[in-house]
Specification:
The structure is a homodimer.
Chain A: E1 2-3, H1 6-26, E2 33-39, H2 43-59, E3 62-68, H3 74-85, E4 92-95, H4 105-111, H5 123-131, H6 139-150, E5 159-163, H7 170-178, E6 187-191, H8 198-203, E7 207-210, E8 228-231, E9 235-238, E10 246-249, H9 254-257, E11 263-264, H10 274-298
C-alpha cells in the first residue's frame, strides 16, 4: 500500500511555485498577486484565510487581505469586487465563504470576473471545465487531479466510483475524470443518497473517491483488493483528548481499507493540504495568462 | 414495449406553447421573439433554420432571420450579436452552427449574453446547469428530459448508462440525470471509447441513452429485458431508394432491441423532433424571465 501524502505533495508544489516566481522576479515579469476578502469573525474562515496569506508569503506571491465586519453591506462587497475585477495589479481573488446571512453568496460569486475567479466557483468556470475549455478548476477537484498525476495513478480505462454529488467535489470530479485527458478517460459512476446498490457498485471500482461527508462510510467490504482510494471527507467529531477539542474523520475507514488498497489518501494529510496549493496554482496561472494577454495587446 | 414518440410529443409541446402565447397576447404581455443568425449556404443549416422559423410562426412566436454570406467577417457577426444582446425586443437568439472556417465559433458562442443564449451553449449556462442553478439547457438534453417526464419514466434510483461523452449530449445528460430533481436522482455511468467493459456495463442498465454516433452500436445482447432505451444517434447513410438520397440510422439496432425494451425512442421520430420544441421552450422561458425582470425594475 502506498500512502498518498497530500502534505508532502502540497509542499513540493509550493517549492515549485517558489522557484517559478523567483524566476519571474529575476526577469522583471509581473508577480502573481492574490487578494482575499474576509467578512466577519468566523474562526474557521480566519484560520483558513491566514493560512492562504502565509502560503503566499512563503512562495514569494503577493497577497492582499481585505477584511470587513459582520455587518458589511452587500453593496460594499459588490463594489470592492468590481474594483478588484478592474485592478490590473491583482491576478486573482477570492471571497472566503461562508458569508453572513444578509449577503447573497450566489450574487457575490457571480460578480467575480471569471478570469480572476481563482476559486473556480463562477458558473462560467464550471461550464468551461465541463466543455473541456481552459478554466479555473476549484481547489478540491484540482488537488485530487494533482495527486493522481504526481503519484502516476493511471485513470484511463479504469472503473471509477465517486461517492457524493456535491457541486464543489463530486460532480466536477465526475466530469474531470470522464474527459479525454491524461488524468481522465476513466469510466465514471457517480453514486449518491438515492443509489440503490451502492456497496455492490463500489466493490467493482478500480478507483474510489469518497466525498459524502459521513465518517468511515467506506468499509473494507466495499473495496476491491488493489483499489485506489481517495478520501475527501472531513467531519469534525468532539474529542477532549485533542488540543483543538475535536478529531477529524474521513469518509473512509482508513485502518481497515488501507489493508486492501493499492493507494490511499489519509484524513488529515491527504486531500486537505492540497486545497491551498491548488489556489496558489490557479493564481499563478491567472497571472501568467493576464501577462500574456497584456503582451499580445502591446505587440 | 412503448414507443417514445418524439414527433407527437414535440407537437403537444408546440400546442401548449401556442396557447400560452395566445394568452400573453390577450393580456398585452410581451410575446417571445427568437432571432436566428444564418451564415453561408450550407444545405442542412438552411433547412434547419427554416424549420425553426416555421415552428415559431406556427405557435405565434415572433422570429427574425438574419442571413449573411459565407464571406462575412467575424467582426460583423460580433457587432450583430452585441446589438441583439442589447435589443429588449429579442427574447433570445441563436447562431446556427457550423460557421465558415475563418470565424472562431468559440468566440461567437462566448459573445452571446447567457440570458439570451437559448441554445444553452455558453459556458455560463453549462456551468449553471451543472451547479443546479436556473439555466438554459441545450436542445437535445432538454428534449430527452421532456420525453422522460412526459412518458412518466422514473429515473430515481435507476442505473443509467450514457454512451458517449460529447459536450452537447453525453456529458450534460450525465449531469442532469444525477442531480437531485424529479427527472434526476439516477445512478449514472458515462461510458465512452476508452471504457473497457462497455457491453457488461450496458447490460445492467435500467436506462440506456445512446449518443455515440455509430449506427446500430447498441445490440440486443447489450440490453437488459425491460430497459428504457433512448437513441440520440443520427448517422446518414447513402440510400438511393430514398428521395433524400440517404437513410438515417440511430445508435440502436431498433428492430432487435425493441423486443426487449420497455420504452424505446426510434430514429427518426424520437429525440430529433424534440430539439426544435426545446428551443421554443427556452425562448418562451427567456421571454417570461425578461418580462418579470422588467416588472421588478419598474415596481
Amino acid at each position: 500500500m502506498i500512502l498518498i501524502d497530500g502534505k508532502q505533495t502540497a509542499f513540493t508544489i509550493k517549492e515549485e511555485l517558489k522557484s517559478k516566481i523567483a524566476k519571474l522576479k529575476a526577469e522583471n515579469q509581473p508577480v502573481p498577486h492574490l487578494a482575499a476578502i474576509l467578512v466577519g469573525n468566523d474562526g474557521g474562515s480566519i484560520t483558513y484565510v491566514n493560512a492562504k496569506v502565509k502560503a503566499c508569503a512563503y512562495i514569494g506571491m503577493e497577497s492582499t487581505l481585505i477584511t470587513y465586519g459582520n455587518e458589511v453591506s452587500e453593496e460594499t462587497l459588490l463594489n470592492k469586487i468590481e474594483e478588484l475585477n478592474n485592478d490590473d495589479s491583482i491576478s486573482g481573488f477570492i471571497v472566503q465563504l461562508p458569508l453572513p446571512k444578509h449577503i447573497d453568496e450566489r450574487k457575490i460569486t457571480l460578480a467575480i470576473s471569471p478570469s480572476k475567479d481563482v476559486d473556480g466557483f463562477h458558473p462560467e468556470n464550471v461550464g468551461r471545465m465541463s466543455l473541456g475549455l481552459p478554466a479555473f478548476v476549484s481547489a478540491t477537484p484540482n488537488g485530487i487531479l494533482e495527486l493522481l498525476k504526481r503519484y502516476d495513478i493511471i485513470t484511463e480505462g479504469k472503473d471509477c466510483v465517486i461517492i457524493g454529488r456535491s457541486s464543489i467535489v463530486g460532480t466536477p470530479m465526475s466530469i474531470l475524470l470522464s474527459r479525454n485527458t491524461p488524468t481522465g478517460n476513466a469510466t465514471v459512476t457517480l453514486v449518491h443518497s438515492r443509489t440503490k446498490n451502492l456497496e455492490e457498485i463500489c466493490k467493482k471500482a478500480d478507483i474510489i473517491i469518497a466525498a459524502i461527508g459521513k465518517p468511515h462510510f467506506v468499509k473494507a467490504e466495499m473495496v476491491k483488493e488493489g483499489a485506489v482510494v481517495i478520501d475527501v471527507g472531513t467531519t469534525r467529531i468532539e474529542d477532549r483528548s485533542k488540543k483543538s477539542g475535536f478529531k477529524l474523520y474521513g469518509d473512509v475507514d482508513f485502518e481497515a481499507v488501507s489493508k486492501k488498497a493499492s493507494y490511499i489518501s489519509p484524513v488529515p494529510g491527504g486531500v486537505g493540504p492540497m486545497t491551498i496549493a491548488s489556489l496558489l496554482l490557479n493564481t499563478y496561472k491567472a497571472c501568467v495568462q493576464s501577462s500574456s494577454k497584456l503582451a499580445n495587446h502591446q505587440s
